[in-house]
Amino acid sequence: MISIIAAGGHMFLVDLKRSVCYQLSASLLLLAASAAKTRGQNRATLLKGPVRGIMVNILIIGLGGFLGAVARYGVALWIGQRWGRNFPLGTFVINITGSMLIGFLMPLLTERFLANPQWRLFLAVGFLGAYTTFSTFEYETGALLKDGEWLIACGNVILSVIVGFAALKVGETVARSI
């Protein structure tokens, strides 16, 4: 199944069967649109065929992304209020749980149950894409370095990578044992 996904101001062509993703340029998209016009297809015609499926996929990703972003905000807020903000613990917990969840979900969705690819779009691309916070991780680590907190910054990087990878493997192991 091939889909076009919009994320972060970019368009991507995703082949779920082969797990391949290509970034599309604006000129390629304009070329495709003009080619459709020269064949006499209008916007309404395009939305009836494969583009309709693409729009459904984009909505599925958007819904998952909305829920993932709200979950991220809630978890980070709760952790920050409970344990403080000296160490970016909220981001750390979100990245670790996100790593474990993707490690748990992907084997279930692609190996164990062979679920509809739209579940993968909703959960992995949408929800976990918005829930996990690698960009925030980078920003917070940079801010720690800027503030001279080298030890905390290094601890954040090392722990996030090592514990995140371990959580991914735990999730995969649990999923495969089901």
Helix percent reads over 70%
> How many DSSP-defined strands?
3
**Biggest sheet layout:** 3 strands, antiparallel
In whole angstroms, how far apart are the ends? 27 Å
Instruction: Categorize the overall geometry.
Output: globular
Strand adjacency order, main sheet: 1-2-3
Radius of gyration: 20 Å
pLDDT < 50 stretches: 25-36, 41-47
Structural class: mainly alpha
**Total DSSP helices:** 7
* N-to-C series of helices and strands: EEEHHHHHHH
Mean pLDDT: 81
Strand content is 5-15%
Number of domains: 1
Description:
The chain has one domain (2-177). Helix content is 74%, strand content 10%. It has helices at residues 26-38, 43-46, 50-83, 89-112, 117-131, 134-146, 150-177; strands at residues 2-7, 10-15, 20-24. Strand 1 (2-7) and strand 2 (10-15) form a beta hairpin. Helix 4 runs antiparallel to helix 5. It is globular. The model is unreliable at 25-36 and 41-47 (pLDDT under 50).
